[in-house]
Amino acid sequence: MTTKNILLTGVGGQGTILASKLLTEGLLSQGYDVKMSEVHGMSQREGPVLTHVRFGEKVFSPIVEAKRADVIIGFEELEVLRNLEYLREDGKGIVILNRVRVYPIGVQNGSEKYPENAAELISARAGKMVAMDASEEARKLGNIRVMNIILLGASVRQLGLEGIDWGRIIAENVKPQYVELNQQAFELGKSLS
Amino acid sequence: MKQLITGNEAVARGAWEAGVRFASAYPGTPSTEILENIATYKEIHSEWAPNEKTALESVIGASLAGARAIASMKHVGLNVAADPFFTFAYIGVNAGAVVVTADEPGQFSSQNEQDNRNYAKAAMTPMFEPSDSQECKDMLLEAFEISEQYDIPVLFRMTTRVCHSKSLVELGERKDVPLKPYVKNIKKYVAVPANAGPMKVKVQANQALLKAYSNNCQWNRLEMNESGIGIICSGDCYLYAREVFGGDASYLKLGFTNPLPDDLIREFASKVQKIYIIEENDPYIEEHVQALGIACDGKNIFPRNGEMKPEVIRSVMYGEKYAVDDEVRAAVIPRPPTLCAGCPHRGFFYELGRRKNVMVSGDIGCYTLASGAPYHAMETTVCMGASISLGHGAQQVFDTIEGNKMRVVSVLGDSTFFHTGINSLLDVAYNKSNLITVVLDNRITAMTGQQDNPGSGRTIQGEITEAVSIEAIARAFGFRNVRVINPNQLAEVKQALDWALGLQEPSVIITRWPCALKKQTAIDQEEFKGSFTSVYWVNEEVCIGCKKCTRTGCPAIVFQVAKKKSSIDPEKCVGCSVCAQVCPKQAIQKVEA
């Protein structure tokens, strides 16, 4: 198989780290070679987070090349837009879009305008866009924090990775009291995708 | 068992497996997690050092005393540690010693993009350059062997992507490496001219021996394919090159890069038609290959700055165009990092930014963000500790101007003060400049992710230790004008600045309040009782929409453009009250429980 390229993009505190951890654990359980790269630094200070995940038989570079991302898992609209030039251009690129906006400081203080048309711009460039308000769905499940797992479930469906025992992967990587909730969130994400 | 771990974790694991007993570092991106992970192994005595020089010097001592030892630092940290590094190469080791340098092609969180491979060449130390996590571990184990075999410290050069990328690593067991007895050996360990001369001869002779090793070791290898294109590369550049060329090129993959393997390079050159050198930063390999009389392309076509990402290689080699999406780029707005809600630097910079006839000499830490909007209250940043000494020099010159009104305010954090600012403060005391030094003491090393330091009262392992007093240091240096203030109280900040600006003598202001992200100790909780426990709200009926509160730059404040009213995100607000003090209408009030 050719190496698959996935990007997770969002802002600090949205749970991209756990989502990418579960994703890589699942991929490893299938015997894939996996590499992952994160840009560290400013996520605790309201900055963006971008995680690269690549898997296949043998992976060399840990970072996704421009115009070669198969899937962008977008936790926040502006951050997807910021990284949209990573998406493959042959009409086969998939974007999982969380319809959530986290305003940067410039928007908060009224000096800048949030791109209202982000979803349209993304949709026009993606082969397929799966949009959902995962935060709202998570709230309905009773815990806003499982938003990341809903998005993961949706992504797994789009990546065709449903054969992996995700229930077990979740059980092994989250605190016991949250296992069931996370498994529910995961299934919900799959069904919304 | 294989695990998916970062290069930094792999180095820590490698140190443990290599039988390392002593480790020291000063935090610095992208190297910080090396020592943080080493410290999780109880067999290794781990220490945060005040700076990289003291870290390396204690590693020298540990090696001489018979323990395998490791120092890790970011690239610019090795500048600070360069003095001991060069002479450590001369005196050599007792037990093996490795110095990890984490370089930053792309400058994600650094003030420059220097290539520390040049240090290995200049100091004549052996050097490894791993490309993935497995190599980080394997090469580190070998580095200790080389260090002992050739009686010399080894430079271990990583880059941001190697440090922070995860790949699979086969874990091993810890080797039992007993302490080596310390033997008094003045000729070996005292680098006075009479001894250092022969030492240098030994180091030079070592280079010849290491060249043979370089030609024959497993870390430098040919990967021949049916292609006339030959790529010479090291570190993560090998992975990028493999990604782009795959089987359409042959490779000379270099993992041991000082001294470089002349024979292997010549052999490779004889087997391919055209050589490309793919390396980040300086033409380190390229200049060597050219000196061997071998024609190659390198920095004449590839950039010397930034990361050598696959798209960079592809666009240079194949002319692949990465079309810019103008519509998307026009829509994207920045998401700059900000001082956190409740950051104790906010109130200080809000006040400082309003002063006229002041030059703010800055330093390296979260507070460097004060150079940006909305504060614009930092005018220089060079290197750790420079705020004070640079400010000192500037103030001395300003004061030679007749009728001078310019005052310099030097601003740095507690950890940066302990790092090298402390030396600079001596300069001020001794040479009597009229400098205002401000130490933003947030009780932790915040920027790199909450590491303890000499002022925090705790070691890396969480043991209680002496909490060094910055105030006592300033007074011991002879400063008569020292004040400790709460930076969240704007009136106090204003008064302290008025006081300092009115003095004809140097002064030291210490702002003492913990970082909003700090996990407070019992001592902190006692001293800063009630901190970060309240929330403020905006009474919209009173708010006049003047936006003064937004000029504090707090990420908890949201200005509602349509309503022309401010609001506060209760999820983010931690009750520092700075915005409430700024509000001219008392529209911002504490939420009563």
Mean pLDDT of chain A: 94
Strand neighbour order, sheet with most strands of chain B:
3-2-4-5-7-6-12
Model regions low in confidence, pLDDT < 50 over at least 5 residues of chain B: none
At CATH level 2, the architecture of the largest domain in chain B is: 3-Layer(aba) Sandwich
- Please state the oligomeric state of the protein chains shown: heterodimer
> Could you say what the CATH architecture of chain A is?
3-Layer(aba) Sandwich
Number of domains of chain A: 1
Largest sheet of chain B: 7 strands, mixed
Short summary of the structure?
The complex is a heterodimer of chains A (193) and B (593). By secondary structure, chain A is of the alpha/beta class. Chain A contains eight helices and six strands.
Q: How does this structure look, described?
A:
- The complex is a heterodimer of chains A (193) and B (593).
- Helices cover 39% and strands 19% of the residues of chain A.
- Chain A is an alpha/beta fold and 193 residues long.
- Chain A has a single domain, classed as Pyruvate-ferredoxin oxidoreductase, PFOR, domain III (Pyruvate-ferredoxin Oxidoreductase, domain 3, 3-Layer(aba) Sandwich), CATH 3.40.920.10.
- Chain A has a 6-stranded mixed beta sheet, sandwiched between helices.
- In chain A, helix 5 crosses helix 8 and helix 6 packs across helix 8.
- The model of chain B has no long low-confidence stretch (mean pLDDT 97).
- With 593 residues, chain B is of the alpha/beta class.
- Chain B is 37% helix and 18% strand.
- The radius of gyration of chain B is 27 Å and the shape is globular.
- Chain B is built from 22 helices and 22 strands.
- The chains are: A alpha/beta (193), B alpha/beta (593).
- Strand 2 of chain A pairs antiparallel with strand 8 of chain B, so a sheet runs across the interface.
